[in-house]
Every structure is written in structure tokens, then in C-alpha cells.
Amino acid sequence: MKWIIKSDLKIGIFPVLEIIAPQLDLHFASRTGGVSPSPFNSLNLGANIGDTDRNVNQNRDILLNTLGISSDNLVKGEQIHSSNIKVVNKGGSYKASDGFITEREGLSLAISTADCYPVILYSPPENTLAAIHVGRKGAAKGIISKTLGIMIDQFLINPEYTISLIGPGICWKCYRVNKRIAAQFDKNVIKKRKDELYLDLPLFIKNELKRGGIKQRNIFSSGVCTSCSPDFCFSYRRDAHRTGRHWTIATIK
Ligand SMILES: [Zn+2]
Fold first, then answer.
1. Cα pseudo-dihedral 239, 6, 100, 245, rounded to 10
2. What single DSSP character describes residue 65?
3. Topology (CATH) of 2-252
4. How far, in Å, from the CA of 152 to the mean position of ligand 1?
5. Cβ partners under 8 Å of residue 222, min gap 6
6. Could you tell me the pTM of the whole model?
7. DSSP string, 138-178
8. Which residues is 24 bridged to in the sheet?
């Protein structure tokens, strides 16, 4: 991933897409360039987390205008750390949804995060796109394999040709977990430092993608940790739960 400046916003993009998937538009909005005061400074896109609706709506307008996206074509979900996936054909706010799949051009799928990972799957041959919210709970519930299963069954994609992009999220060094949570995951994604246990969620995500048939060479990771990047990223853990949310927005052009 690389940062670019668009108007006053610092946006993360994957330049490799211009070569391997020019039909896919993908942007990660950093926390900069918005109107919200601390602790939501400044481009907080999350509603109902303590910031005013006025600020959130203004921030959303700033982002959508900058990216040239009409709010009518925006798909967003009430994310509940589930493995609920919806196939969508029109914009709107969808109840209890942590992932979307579409083949509709011009429809923008938004995933809201602040430590959890936004994961994008795109199959160029079938022009099929998925955007999912992958935190510890959704990951453990198999949201990645479930999404790939729907893409294979309903959209006839071949995972061998599917590319995946993993946006900013929390790195293992910032993600200490207790024994009960560690026990829910394979040993290879639990790291030990001194006597503490840590969850390597990005490694878990990569393992799940590969288990689903995605080739290693088609997995692209931003490498940005939200908790390690206070200047550009909100972090639910680092900021003791009082923080904003970013959006990752994926669109088939
Ligand atoms: Zn970190």
C-alpha cells in the first residue's frame, strides 16, 4: 500500500491494482482531513460512537466527494463481528452485515474499522467483488471461508485467479490476548513474548485466504498497523475504545 494525498485527505491505495486489476478501485481513508475534534480527530466515519452525527456526516461527505462516490451507490453495514455476508445490488445501510459481495459496477462497498482488518477479494475473470470486516470474532467464525464459498457457489469464481487485499489493522505486537482467546486459534498464529500471548490476526487472515485456495502471490497486505500509526490511524485498543473509525471503500469501475 502507499499513501497519496487527494484534496486534503491522506488515502491508502494499492498501486499494483493498476496492473493486475484495473477495474477495481480501492481506497483506505486515514484519520486525517476531517472535522471531528479529539478523540475522533479528525476524519471519523463511524456513527453512534460518541462523535456528533453532524461531524460524521460532514466527514462522510468530504470523503465521498473526494473519491467521487455518490452516497446513493454506497453500501455499508451495521457490523456486529459476525460472519453474515450479503449479496448486494444497490446502495444502502444493511442490518447485521460484516461483508458484502457484488458484481454490480459502480457500487461502492464500505468496511468500517479501527484495528479489525478490511479484507477485499476480487476475481477479475468474473468481475466479482467482496469486502469484509475481519476482526478476531468474525475470523474465528470463518467469515473468510464463508465469503469465498459464496463467491465460488453463486458467482463461479476460481480462487486461483482471485486477488485479495488486506488493509490496515492491528499487528501482533499490539494485540495481547488472554489464554481463553488464544485457545480458540491455531498455535501458529499465537506468539509468545515473555509470559504474554499475542494474536497474529494478519497471519491468521493470510492462512485462511490460502486455505480457501487464494495463491500466495495474489495476497497483498498494507503492512500498516493501526495501533502503531497514531498519526494516520484510529485504534480501538490503543485509544482505550474512545476513537474514530476508518472506511475502506472498494468499487468495480
Ligand atoms: Zn502494532
1. 10
2. H
3. CNF1/YfiH-like putative cysteine hydrolases (3.60.140)
4. 34
5. 1, 12, 14, 28, 165, 166, 167, 168
6. 0.97
7. HHHTTHHHHHHHHHHHHH---GGG-EEEE-SB--GGG-EE-
8. 252
Domain ranges of the chain: 2-252
Residue 32, pLDDT score: 97
- How far away, in angstroms, is 226 Cα from ligand 1 center? 6
What is the per-residue pLDDT for 167?
Answer: 98
Rounded distance from Cα 126 to ligand 1 centre (Å): 35
What is the whole-number distance in angstroms between the Cα of residue 223 and the centre of ligand 1?
A: 10
Q: Determine the distance separating the centroid of ligand 1 and the alpha carbon of 224, expressed in angstroms.
A: 8
For ligand 1, the distance from its centroid to the CA atom of residue 91, given in whole angstroms, is 33
SS3 252: strand
**How far does the centroid of ligand 1 lie from the alpha carbon of residue 209, in Å?**
22
Sign of the CA dihedral with 18 first, then 21, 25, and 28 last: negative
How far is CA 237 from its chain centroid? 17
Give Cα 214 to chain centroid, integer Å.
18
pLDDT of 26-43, one tens digit each? 999 999 999 999 999 999
